[in-house]
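Bit of a strange request maybe. I'm writing a small parser for structure token strings and I need a real example to test against, not something I typed by hand. Could someone generate the tokens for this chain?
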Amino acid sequence: MRASLSALCAAFLASMYFRSYFGVVGPLISDELALSPVEFGWLASAFFGSFALLQVPVGIAFDRFGVRWPMASMMVVGAVGSALLGSSSGFLSAFAGQVAIGIGCAPIFMGVLYYLGRLHSPDKAGRLAATVSSIGSVGALISASPLSFFTAEWGWRAACWTAAAMMSGCALSIALSLRQTPSARSALQTTGHGTWRLPHLLYLVPICFTLSLGGTFRNAWAGPYLTDVFGQGTNVGAVLTAVSVFGIATSFVLPFALLRWRGRRIVTATYAVGVLSALLLAFSPGGSIFAASAGLAFLYAMGNVHPVAMTEAQALLPNQIRGIGLGALNTLVFLGVSASSSVFGALAELHFSAAATYGLIFAATAMALAIALGLYVVCRPKAIAVQEAAPVFD
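Reply from user aminoacidic:
Good idea to test on real output. This should exercise your parser:
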């Protein structure tokens, strides 16, 4: 078990590295390959596009074959993609490399949830998934200042080849250390053909859709907000670093919190703090840089409950559709990021003052989080009651 947890932590660290490494190597790639702004935009989105599109197919593969081999083989594709990117001479080869990296990272987070959920009780699986997530989040830090130093010394191509070797090692460790979990087909054969009614998972849809709203600010809108409201001289880098460190620190606290409180209480409390933070920023977006930093940090840290919410969903899904169910819910997280960024852009086009514009954006965020929280609190008990009353295969 220790070997498999170590392998999962390493794989998730690699995934978190690749989620944010392009912010450092992207401009260097663009300069050397003489990419146009349009090509740079496509290159930046290629990873997340392939990552998001594969969530449901990955879930189907887990249901059919288990976690071990689909996850390991796709990670090998990711390693090849990183090597291809490091060897690229133009846009097309670089784009193919980014797509392949997205393919390699697509099964990792879901694989952690699925694997632990099939071997442990929901409470223990949630704690272990939160532990893997917190350790793996260090990958986001590696892709910041350490990566900048590495590329300054040895170049972005060497960084890509090194990352390819890292991903290959992680794939090998997954193949060697994970036990073969039962596939959905074998679980169905051993449990018989009973009657199963679809659990009322709709109450988790708004939660999944809004889980990464704080990440939208961290990755895209925090910079414009800080410079537009507090001035061009604002040290955006320092604020974003503080926000990232707070998010990582709270992720390490989460496994210990799960030892004392149920996951539903942590999700509820986290969303309540998120709503309050968004409301305070909505009413006073230009109050102080410290208040703004704190609000952004709390919103960003909300994403830490992602494994907790997905573990809750997994407990309600029968074996034969567990993978596809998790894949569908996980896809919503990425759709939420895309939709929220688009909505924020539309609000910014209203040409109000900077303070009014961002006050409106934070108000919209607070409303979305409040709706998700309200449905979770009101509808969850009914959904759990219906599920417990229905005969299932598990």
